[in-house]
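Title: Comparing notes on inverse folding

I've been comparing how different people in this forum approach sequence design from structure. To keep things fair, I'm posting one structure and asking everyone to reply with a full sequence. Here's the target:
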C-alpha cells in the first residue's frame, strides 16, 4: 500500500471519540505501512484558540498518541509547524484551487455560519490539509467520515496541479474510513467532543469513567429495568463492541433484548472494560509526562525525517513551476 498520512488537531489529551475514530486505526496501520502522523497546529489557528494553551495542548496530544501506541520506531510523528514546507505548499496549492470548491465544503459552511466575520484561513483550511498529505506524496489518508470531502478536494487539487505542472507528480490520495461505526457522545445526541463533556478522556481514572457512563443515554425504550431493549439502537452497545470481548458483546445483546439486566449493570461492565483498556495507556502517559525532554526529542526526530521528504518535494515543485533557483540550490547536488 502507498504511504499513509493523517493529521489530528492539537486538542490536548485524546478522548474516546478520536481514539476509536482515528488513533486505534493508526496504531494498526504503522505495523504494515510507511506512516506519517502529524499534529496540525497550523489548522488549529483557523478558529478562536487559546494562545496560552496551544503548546501544552500540542505536547499533550503527542503524549496521548505515544501512550496509545504510536511507536516512533514504526511511524513518523511530528508537529506541523515544525516542518515549514506545509505552509509553502499550501500557498502553491491556493493558486490552483477554485474558490467555489472551498466555499462549498460542508465543514466550512458549518463553521463559518457560526461566525460574524469569516477568516480566510478557515476557508483555506482544506488547502493546507491537501498540502499536508501531498507534501509526502501519500496515497492513503485514514480519516473520519467528516473528512472524506476534504480528501476529495485534495484529489482535485492534485489533478489540477499535475495537469498544469507535471503529469503524475502528485498521487490522488484515497480516504480510508476507519472500522469504528459512528459512535455518538454519551448524551446520545452529538458527536463526541471534549468541549461538550459527552466523552471519556483516555487518561480518565476508573471512577471518573464510571461517573461519566452512569448517566449516559441508552435505548429510550428501556424506561424500567423490565422493559426489553434493542442493542442496535443503544449507543452504549456500540461502545461495548469496541471495548468488550466478543463473548461479552453477545451477552450484552442477549440480556438487553430479554431485559435480563438493567442498563446500569450493563454500564458497569462497560466501565470496567474501558478502564482496563485505558489503564496501560494512562500509565505510559504518566511516564512520558515525567520525561518531557524525551517527548520533545521524539517530535524533533519525527520532524527531521519529515523535512527530508518535504524538502525534496518542494524542490521539485519549485523547479517544475519555473521558480529561479537559489544559489545554494544551483550548487548543491541533488
Ligand atoms: N482536518 C482534519 C480533522 O479535523 C485534521 C487534518 C489536518 C488531517 N490535516 C490532515 C487529516 C491531513 C488527514 C490528513 O480531523
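Reply #1:
Here's my take.
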Amino acid at each position: 500500500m502507498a504511504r499513509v498520512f493523517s493529521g489530528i488537531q492539537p486538542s490536548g489529551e485524546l478522548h474516546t471519540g478520536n481514539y476509536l475514530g482515528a488513533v486505534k486505526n493508526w496504531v494498526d496501520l504503522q505495523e504494515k505501512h510507511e506512516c506519517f502522523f502529524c499534529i496540525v497546529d497550523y489548522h488549529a489557528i483557523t478558529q478562536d484558540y487559546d494562545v496560552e494553551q496551544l503548546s501544552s495542548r500540542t505536547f499533550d496530544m503527542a503524549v496521548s498518541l505515544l501512550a496509545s501506541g504510536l511507536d516512533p520506531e514504526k511511524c513518523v510523528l511530528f508537529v506541523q509547524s515544525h516542518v515549514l514546507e506545509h505552509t509553502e505548499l499550501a500557498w502553491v496549492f491556493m493558486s490552483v484551487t477554485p474558490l467555489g470548491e472551498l466555499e462549498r465544503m460542508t465543514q466550512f459552511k458549518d463553521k463559518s455560519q457560526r461566525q460574524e466575520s469569516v477568516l480566510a484561513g478557515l476557508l483555506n483550511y482544506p488547502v493546507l490539509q491537501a498540502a499536508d498529505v501531498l507534501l509526502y506524496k501519500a496515497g492513503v489518508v485514514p480519516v473520519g467520515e467528516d473528512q472524506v470531502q476534504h480528501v476529495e478536494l485534495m484529489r482535485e487539487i492534485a489533478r489540477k496541479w499535475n495537469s498544469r505542472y507535471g503529469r503524475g507528480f502528485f498521487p490522488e490520495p484515497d480516504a480510508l474510513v476507519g472500522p469504528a461505526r459512528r459512535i455518538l457522545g454519551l448524551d446520545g445526541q452529538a458527536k463526541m467532543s471534549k468541549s461538550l463533556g459527552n466523552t471519556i478522556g483516555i487518561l480518565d481514572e476508573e471512577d471518573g469513567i464510571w461517573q461519566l457512563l452512569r448517566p449516559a443515554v441508552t435505548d429510550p425504550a428501556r424506561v424500567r429495568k423490565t422493559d426489553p431493549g434493542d442493542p442496535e439502537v443503544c449507543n452504549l452497545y456500540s461502545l461495548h463492541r469496541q471495548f468488550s470481548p466478543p463473548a461479552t458483546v453477545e451477552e450484552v445483546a442477549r440480556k438487553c433484548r430479554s431485559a435480563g439486566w438493567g442498563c446500569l449493570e450493563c454500564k458497569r461492565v462497560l466501565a470496567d472494560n474501558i478502564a482496563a483498556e485505558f489503564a496501560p495507556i494512562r500509565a505510559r502517559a504518566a511516564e512520558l509526562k515525567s520525561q518531557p525532554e524525551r517527548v520533545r526529542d521524539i517530535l524533533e526526530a519525527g520532524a527531521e525525517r519529515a523535512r527530508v521528504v518535504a524538502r525534496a518535494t518542494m524542490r521539485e515543485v519549485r523547479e517544475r513551476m519555473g521558480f529561479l533557483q537559489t544559489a545554494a540550490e544551483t550548487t548543491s547536488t541533488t
